[in-house]
Amino acid sequence: MPLATSDRPSQTTGLRVWANGRLFADPEEARVAVTDHGLVVGDGVFEALKVTPAGAFATRRHLARLDRSCAAMGLPAADHQVIRAAIDELLDGRRVELGKLRITYTAGRGPLGSGAAYGPQTLVVALDRSQPANPRTTVVTAPWTRNEHGALAGVKSTSYAENVRVLADAVARGGSEGLLLNTAGHVCEGTGSNLFVVQGGTVVTPPLSAGALAGITRELLMEWWPVEERNLTLAEAQAADEVFLTSSLRDIQGVMAWDDVSFGAHPVTDQVAATFAERSGADQDP
Fold first, then answer.
1. In which band, very low, low, confident or very high, does the pLDDT at 13 lie, cut at 50, 70 and 90?
2. Alpha-carbon span 121 to 9, nearest angstrom
3. Strand 202-205 and strand 227-229: pairing?
4. How far is the C-alpha of 123 from the C-alpha of 153, rounded, in Å?
5. Which phi and psi (to 5°) does residue 219 adopt?
6. In terms of pTM, does the model score above 0.85?
7. Could you tell me if 177 and 257 are in contact, meaning their C-beta atoms sit under 8 angstroms apart?
8. What is the pLDDT of residues 229-248, one digit of tens each?
9. DSSP-assigned states of every residue in 208-260
10. What's the pLDDT tens digit per position in 118-133?
C-alpha cells in the first residue's frame, strides 16, 4: 500500500522517501505491505532527527536509542550502515534549512493479529521540511495517565495512538502539548517532549524511572548543564519558577502557561537555550 501522504507532498512539502533499499523519485510510489506488523499492530520503532544545513543532528545517539527500542520490542537491530547510507541519499545535493528526518523500522509482514511477524523487517527513512518551534508555548495536563511499568514505557515504538489522542485533546483545549502524569501521580512527559522545571535556580527533570522517554535533547542537556533528576507532583511542577520542554524539533521551549498557571520571565531557560544552541551548533554529532 502507498505510504500515507497528502496532495502530492513531493511538490508541496519537499517530502523525500527511501524505503527498503531504494530512494523514490515520487514518495507516493513508496510502498509497504498491508500485512506489515508496523501497520497491523504497531510492531515497530522509530526515530525523528532534526536536520540543519550541516546535516542530520546527533545521528549516533539516535541510532543508539533505536537499538535500545529494538531490543525492548524483540526486533533484530537495524543496520546502522544502511540507515546512514539512506540518510546520505536523501540529503545528497539538498540544502535543508530546517527539516525532520524520520527512521521507521518495523517487524515486517505478519499475521493479522498479535502473533510474531514473519519478516523480513521494513525500513523506511523519510525527509521533510520543518518549521521552527515557537520559543514559548502553552501546555495542558492530560486527563489520562502514563503507565511507567508498562512493556512500552520509555520505548519509542510506532504504537503512538495514545500520544495522538493526548495531543489532540491538548490542542482542543488550547495547548500545543499534553503532559502526562504516571500511575504514582508524578509528572512523566509530554506526547513528544521531556519536561524540565526551574526551582530556585536549579533545573529539575523527572527521572526515567517515572516512565519518560530518554530524549536525545534531554540527554545532551544533562551533559551540558547541571540538572537534578527528581520525581515531581503536578503541584510541585506547577509551582516552579520556570518550566520548559525539550525535544529534537523543539530544542529548548519555554512554557508560558500550564493549565491555569502562568509563568513570567524565563531567565534560566533562556540561558539553557543559549548554551544548547552553542554546543549543538559546534558539533553535529555530539
1. low
2. 25
3. parallel
4. 23
5. -60, -45
6. yes
7. no
8. 999 999 999 999 999 999 99
9. GGGT----HHHHHHHHHS-EEE---BHHHHHTSSEEEEEETTTEEEEEEEETT
10. 999 999 999 999 999 9
